[in-house]
Specification:
Blueprint (H helix, E strand, L loop, with lengths): L4 E6 L2 E6 L6 H9 L9 H20 L5 H15 L18 H18 L12 H5 L5 H37 L4 E6 L2 E7 H20 L2 H4 L1 E2 L16 H13 L4 E2 L5 H4 L2 H27 L10 E2 L17 H24 L10 H25 L5 E2 L1 H10 L8 H4 L1 H14 L3 H7 L5 H13 L7
Parallel strand pairs: 5-6
Antiparallel strand pairs: 1-2, 3-4, 7-8
Helix pairs in contact: 1-4, 2-3, 2-4, 2-6, 2-9, 3-4, 6-7, 6-13, 7-11, 11-12, 11-13, 12-13, 17-18
């Protein structure tokens, strides 16, 4: 046999495995069976699943089932992977055997080989540490994979929450800076009463913080795990006090309130808590795409659009039109948000596709949710850093639009009534003359007094009846 390979044997027979691989025969079979997306497992998921194995080794040792020497070797191997080593050995495609059996065995084989070599044995021989008998002791794919999914999402949540809060903070800074920058409000994309850039941006900040809070509220439910349920939630072939001890160890490792679920079977059947996270991510994406659209509209121009704000140029905007600069960061954010909506739909379909004691769609469900969270985190961070932090507000242009707005006739409602104010609005629209000029011409108030009325309306929204 070529020295580049070693021969391993499983219940299906023999197979050549790369000699330098830390994984083994079952992983090699999965690589051959599932050449689908070409995408390896998510990094947070790799680490989360290895943490599950580490906690299991401790719980099995404390339950008297696993020899301390072997448990220590498994723990040491797990710590190496958690620290970032050997991630290239997790090679099973994201679309694989239902429930994640292939990934579970990939992890078992890598940790077993690392442990055995540390004990002076050879990789591929699985003595004294065996992937199934020792690394997988008291476990099943059916309880380790859903637990790892939840732990991986717990790792990603703070990053997405932080990205949203950072964007919100920048909008708050801009809102404070532009608190008195008067502009025309627009409803139905038509002229409306005056407002301020500061008020618009403060509203974006409020919405983003609300999305961040909604996402953060998912943390506690994700800490309820089904580890210890084994194959169908009965706890078959688990060490004494295993579920509680493994959860306690995970809580220590992650500094999270990890605890056994009140019903272990439910946490293997139901993906409702992950679906709820996906819904929160979807909600954030819907709000972000609306805000991104607003930013693109406010920056439209520079001569034939709104041009109320200017976004920092990050690249040339056209291969044919010299000097053109496009709002590319918010265009990118839009695209990511739309993709996130697709990932949420995939999660929803797969969450309802489980049967009886197990949801076999977990590998792809997890991948879809992981992608949505990672993509949105990076997109929000990039848009904030490269565009939002350098926004320029064209205050003179905003004020000019405000005074040109037909919607200013609304300010006359309390002094001359709706019908008479409507006549002023029609005259302004028909003639193209500003409302302030028509008001002064009709002797309703001086142009200067009307300007002060506009400012009062924009800044406070409170007008006294005349």
């Amino acid at each position: 046999m070529d020295k580049k390979f070693r021969i391993e044997k499983d219940t299906l027979g023999e197979l050549a495995v790369p000699a330098d691989a830390w994984y083994g025969i079952q992983t090699a079979r999965a690589v051959a069976n599932f050449p689908i997306s070409g995408r390896p497992p998510d990094r947070d998921f790799i680490i989360a699943h290895v943490r599950v194995k580490r906690a299991a080794a401790v719980a099995n040792r404390d339950g008297g089932w696993l020899e301390a020497r072997l448990a220590s070797a498994i723990v040491d191997a797990a710590d190496k992977v958690i620290a970032g080593e050997h991630h290239d050995q997790f090679v099973v495609d994201r679309f694989q055997a239902g429930a994640g059996t292939s990934h579970n065995m990939n992890t078992n084989e890598v940790l077993a080989n690392l442990a055995n070599v540390s004990l002076g044995a050879k990789r591929g021989e699985y003595r004294p540490v065996h992937p199934n008998d020792h690394v997988n002791m008291s476990q099943s794919t059916n309880d380790t994979i859903p637990t790892a999914l939840r732990l991986a999402v717990l790792a990603k949540l703070p990053r997405l929450v932080t990205a949203l809060e950072r964007m919100a903070m920048e909008y708050e800074r801009l809102a404070e800076r532009e608190a008195t920058t008067i502009k025309s409000g627009r409803t139905h994309l038509q002229d409306a009463v005056p407002t301020t850039i500061g008020r618009e941006f403060a509203a974006y900040a409020f919405t983003l913080r609300r999305c961040a809070a909604d996402l953060a509220s998912n943390r506690a439910p994700l800490g309820e795990i089904g580890l210890g349920g084994s194959a169908v939630g009965t706890g078959l072939n688990t060490a004494p006090n295993y579920a509680a001890r493994a959860a306690e160890e995970l809580a220590r490792l992650l500094n999270e309130p990890i605890r056994p679920a009140a019903d272990l079977t439910a946490q293997m059947q139901s993906m409702a808590d992950l679906q709820r996270v996906s819904h929160s991510v979807r909600l954030a994406a819907l709000e972000l795409t609306r805000i991104a659209n607003d930013m693109r509209l406010l920056a439209s121009g520079p001569r034939t659009g709104f041009a109320e704000i200017e976004l920092p140029p990050v690249q040339p905007g056209s291969s044919i039109m010299p000097g053109k600069v496009n709002p590319v960061m918010f265009e990118m954010l839009n695209q990511v948000c739309y993709q996130v909506l697709g990932q949420d739909a995939a999660v929803a379909y797969m969450a309802q596709a489980g049967q009886l004691e197990l949801n076999v769609m977990m590998p792809a469900l997890g991948s879809a949710l992981f992608d949505a969270m990672d993509w949105l985190t990076r997109a929000v961070d990039a848009a904030t850093e490269k565009n939002l932090e350098g926004v320029v507000v064209h205050r003179d242009g905003c004020l000019e639009y405000a005074h040109a707005s037909v919607g200013l006739a609304t300010l006359l409602n309390t002094s001359i009534g709706y019908a008479a104010a409507a006549e002023v609005a029609k005259e302004s629209q028909r003639s193209g003359r500003p409302v302030r000029e028509i008001v002064a011409e009709r002797g309703l108030m001086t142009a200067a007094d009307f300007d002060r009325l506009v400012e009062q309306a924009a800044l406070t929204g409170q007008l006294k009846p005349h």
